[in-house]
Specification:
The protein is α+β, with helices and mostly antiparallel strands and about 170 residues long. The chain is built from 5 helices and 8 strands, in the order E-E-E-E-E-E-E-H-H-E-H-H-H. The protein folds into 2 domains: about 50 residues, no CATH class; about 100 residues.
């Protein structure tokens, strides 16, 4: 039997007011499609209330780059790329986070230890196409390494449904 590629990491919670490690959970709720648990806690020493989030930590999922190199998958890098693509666009931070969660769930379900960067990039493009077409073209220009303005025009025509791949 294979070991799971995820684990829940438990760390000691400390009250930010008095540093006591003893608290009680007042309320728990799942959020982000069930991938995160939000907990309201109360310190047993001073009574201060605070919120913590628990999230599944995915172990050692490696991204295989185009040139054959591999690097550890990080949700933060995916989030950063999406934030750049959506910069100064009317896309809410929540929509970006939900897309990241959806992509992470999809790739960790489908891939065990290694995921091709292309699989991640295609999922990002699918998600951005639905959220914001300008962000989609921004991301596509970097992901597909556009070299000329005509490549931008072709991508926009694809979005409009007027793309003819045969050269004039």
């Amino acid at each position: 039997m294979l070991a799971p590629h995820w684990a829940v990491v438990s760390r000691v919670m400390r009250c930010i007011k008095c540093s006591c490690e003893e608290d009680k959970v007042i309320d728990s709720r799942t959020s982000r499609e069930g991938s995160t648990i939000r907990r309201r806690r109360e310190c047993l020493a001073c009574g201060y209330r605070f919120t913590t989030y628990e999230e599944i930590e995915h172990e050692e999922l490696m991204v295989i780059k185009r040139d054959g190199r591999s690097e550890q998958f990080t949700k933060e890098k995916l989030l950063s790329g999406l934030r750049k693509a959506c910069g100064k666009r009317p896309v809410s931070p929540r929509a970006i986070e939900e897309l990241v969660d959806k992509i992470v769930n999809e790739i960790t379900t489908k891939y065990d230890r290694e995921v091709p960067s292309m699989a991640i990039g295609e999922r990002v493009m699918e998600g951005l196409r639905e959220i914001d077409q300008v962000a989609y073209v921004r991301f596509a220009s970097v992901y597909r390494r556009f070299q000329e303005a005509t490549e931008f025009v072709q991508e926009v025509k694809k979005l409009e449904g007027n793309y003819d791949p045969t050269p004039p």
